[in-house]
Amino acid sequence: MERLNSKLYVENCYIMRENERLRKKAELLNQENQQLLFQLKQKLSKTKNPSGSNNDKNLCPSSSASGQS
Fold first, then answer.
1. What is the rounded CA–CA span in Å between residue 59 and residue 61?
2. 50: exposed, middle or buried (Cβ count in 10 Å: 0-12, 13-18, 19+)
3. Distance between CA atoms of 25 and 28, rounded to whole angstroms?
4. pLDDT tens, 6-53?
5. How far from 65 is each of 39, 44, 56, CA to CA, in Å?
6. Within 13 Å of residue 60, how many CA atoms lie on the same side as its CB?
7. Cβ distance 46 to 56 under 8 Å?
8. Is the full-model pTM beyond 0.70?
9. Compositional bias (Polar residues) at which positions (predicted)?
10. For residue 66, is pLDDT > 80?
């Protein structure tokens, strides 16, 4: 029983390390995505047509629509 507990403990530690690694990677990807979205919005605002219509609203769905928070 103690051997099984030790094995499960080691496996759990590995899973927690992997989870933390993936969480950090996801955070970096999210930051990069936010940065790219900001840059895109800046470019679109610079090239917006003179009538003042805002066409960039339909480019990307809101984060709530895609299931992200």
1. 7
2. exposed
3. 5
4. 999 999 999 999 999 999 999 999 999 999 999 999 999 998 865 555
5. 21, 22, 16
6. 12
7. no
8. no
9. 47-69
10. no
